[in-house]
Design brief:
Blueprint lengths: L2 H7 L6 E4 L3 E5 L9 E5 L11 H21 L4 E5 L15 E6 L16 H9 L1
Antiparallel strand pairs: 1-2, 2-3, 3-5, 4-5
The structure holds adenosine monophosphate (AMP) and zinc ion (ZN).
């Protein structure tokens, strides 16, 4: 059983932000910003590529509700909603979850995208298959 399934089963303690029959939201044990929260379905899916649409829609919808509440009540200025898919992307727990990262003007979270000079038309052709 994965670590999030163990948390859902109550075998490992967690700080619950929200729970219903389908979803659980907990504080991340490693707080990247104050209020860093993980939202996960109670049913195990490895990642965003293998979850079904109904469960995904419910997951993202509740993530939005919780993000609004967290940003508002913790007096954040905004947030990042993050999902890692696959080890290459940084996913370390292979049970789908969205990170809610409240953002503050003076926080030290540094998410940076490099800017590569790829041929965009070639990429579009390849995506089309
Ligand atoms: P990811 O790297 O996207 O798979 O995110 C997994 C997250 O789970 C990391 O941010 C970890 O800090 C967090 N995490 C791992 N174990 C626990 C735990 N027992 N309770 C709460 N969060 C955890
Ligand atoms: Zn699991």
């Amino acid at each position: 059983m994965c670590i999030f399934c163990e948390i859902i089963e109550g075998n490992i303690p967690s700080k619950k932000v929200y729970e219903d029959d389908k979803l659980l939201a907990i504080l991340d044990i490693a707080q990247a910003t104050r209020g860093h929260t993980l939202v996960l379905p109670k049913k195990h899916f490895d990642n965003i590529l293998d979850i079904d649409k109904d469960n995904l829609e419910n997951l993202i919808s509740t993530t939005q509700d919780l993000a609004k509440k967290i940003v508002n009540n913790l007096k954040a200025e905004g947030c990042n909603i993050l999902n890692n898919c696959g080890e290459v992307s940084g996913q370390s727990v292979h049970h789908i979850h969205f990170h809610i990262l409240p953002r503050y003007n003076n926080d030290d979270l540094d998410i940076k995208f490099p800017n590569h000079d790829y041929d965009l038309d070639e990429i579009l052709k390849e995506i089309d298959g």
